[in-house]
Amino acid sequence: MYIADQAWPDLEDYVESESLAVVPLGSTEQHGPHLPLATDHLIAEGLAREAADRTGFLCTPTVNVGVSTHHRQFHGTMWVDPPAFRDYVESMTRNLAYHGVDRVVFVNAHGGNVQHLREVGRRLRDDGTAYAIEWMWDESIPDLVDDLFEHNGPHGGPKETAMIQHLAGDLVREERLDDARDGGVVDYGRNTGRTFGARTYYDAVDNSDNGVFGDQTDATAEKGEQLFEAATEQLVRLLEWLDERAFEDLAPKPHVEPEPGSRRRGAGSTSRRTGWPGR
Fold first, then answer.
1. What is the pLDDT confidence band of residue 238, given thresholds at 50, 70 and 90?
2. pTM for the whole thing?
3. Are 115 and 106 in contact (CB under 8 A)?
4. What's the chain's Rg over C-alpha atoms?
């Protein structure tokens, strides 16, 4: 159920009986010469709305601009600073909690958002407001992604190309797929952008002249449909699993206490001044 399509009285039954919401998040940033800037948020919204339709859970509007400063050298890329992004998403999730939602899945399609969504989830869990977790579509189906593409890539590669071919094929510049491959980095591996074990890059352009990785010519709408269906299935299973959990089981565990008689004499003494364990 997409919340923005509802009139407020029509949500009464939902907020009385359900406590789960899906929040899609992506970015508006370069995805090479062949894909639209909307790539990430189109994927996130497509998956979130499909899973919500299949389960009946609430889906919010999409957060279209994320943490994308590492793509800033390319025309049209938009971004917000990480603290602003975290505060916005946290505030939005607290808004959901006000209406009775106590568990949230951030359906994310942009790698730059991951660590910040994890931080927001920790804040909300630690103060008992909600249990919020980040879900990244390609990480839910890694074996399928590997099986479908010989030369995959983390950004603008065949997996994202195939997904957009399936979801919004008219936005893919098919005549530029060869250019995307030839002007980017086809063989992306664990040592790409590393020198003696250190990451020596900060921006996408440091590694790829046109901002993308992998072999985009290996993508098809049919492969995109396979990815979409498999990822949606995983998301549906996650939502159903989360809905079945008691909220107290999702809360932080209590402080660990030693078993009686297990402490050595003098160990674990507490400083009277600070309250922290003494040395």
1. very high
2. 0.89
3. no
4. 22
Cα separation, 213 vs 215, in Å, equals 7
Q: 57-72, pLDDT tens digit by residue?
A: 999 999 999 999 999 9
- Residue 66: closest CA among 58, 54, 78, 74: 78
Pairwise CA distance, residues 192 & 201, whole Å: 9
Four-point Cα dihedral 56, 105, 241, 44, nearest 10: 70
